Queue: 2 jobs
Job 1
Amino acid sequence: MNAQEILNSEDFKKCEDFHGHVCPGLSIGYRAAKAGMTWLKENRSEDEEIVAIVETDACSADAVQVLTGCTFGKGNFIYKDYGKMALSLLSRNSGRGIRIVIKNGAFKPDEEHLALIQKVIKDEITEDERKRFDELHYRRSCEILEMPINRLFDMRPVSTDMPKKARIESSEPCARCGEATMKSKLETVEGEKVCRGCFEI
């Protein structure tokens, strides 16, 4: 499929709706999640059949949640703050896993695009610059959607211990703030059970 067909597909539209806009990061997450699920030969996770481990909290993570069905609430969406555009997908059904990492130099930075991104971040962008930014952002997204998968990602099977399933346990009040806290998340301080928020103060 070409970029326009992907952008118009039901799967991509769901990702766009969830994330709020089309961008290169969302497109990377879309391609990575699609490639990983195809490799695993799995369907979207209804419960905890698939585990997704993302190593960035950037835009790509949203597409991963939508396409894999892995979420924080189900306990099968795990975030590791490594600052890498990397995704590992594990199947509880087969015990197989795949790690997908963006290739070094997969696409060269566009200096104009990068400069405009900084202006957007600083909220210093003019109306004309914003139009140009949107144009470059869209073009970059299309390039990612059309790039051959073997030029975009390094993919390799992984063998790792399957993370535990989501825990459901009782809560008790923090001795300091009084807020109900999962028992296993309480810290003992001077003989008192306190939540991590109070523990860090």
Job 2
Amino acid sequence: MHLQGSSWSAAVASADGNGGRSTPLRVDAQRNLEHVLRAAREVFGELGYGAPMEDVARRARVGVGTVYRRFPSKDVLVRRIAEEETARLTDQARSALGQENEPWSALARFLRTSVASGAGRLLPPQVLRVGVDAETEIRVPQQRQAALATTGSPAQPELRLVEQPPVAQDGPDDAGAATLLEVVGQLVERARAAGELRPDVSVADVLLVIATAAPSLPDAAHQAAASARLLDILLDGLRSRPVG
């Protein structure tokens, strides 16, 4: 599956998990939907969005046909999860803006909260494009390419890094990504204006920090400790240094 450009934006719009129907789901169907969504967050968080639907069904302990009844294509499920995680990150950024008066404290609070929540492992590709040479391509560590290769699952597509974040197109996923970039941009601009953030750090750099500092490790305690340690190092790298 390709998650970039038109393929991502063309994901089926009925990502409500109810096939576009307006009638409420039965209790058992609603329970299955919740199991599928929770399993999808776990599987995609561990293996990246290249993980197959069969892995999601297995984790949810339902048949793959049940997953496809809720989500007619993998793009629809990916879109649903990415939208939820984008909205969660946006809420965390707004909370940091509203609860911290000091610009650096606000930015650091947002990063620590987001990394601790694991949201960085589920960031959609739109928000991971950063300002480097447009001819350069890298793989974001959190997309778990190595894990997918080990399991024999389909390879995670490369994320092409372009000069600017994409222009929002029609669709809730693009609108959500644009809102996230705007709110995080306020955190970045405040910290930069206060002279506490390196002037060359962009919004996309900050989001890459969230992705990079959210490793998926088998042991929960080890994962939390590794995330905290890595984030401390990355925060130190983001902070401006006095001249001389």
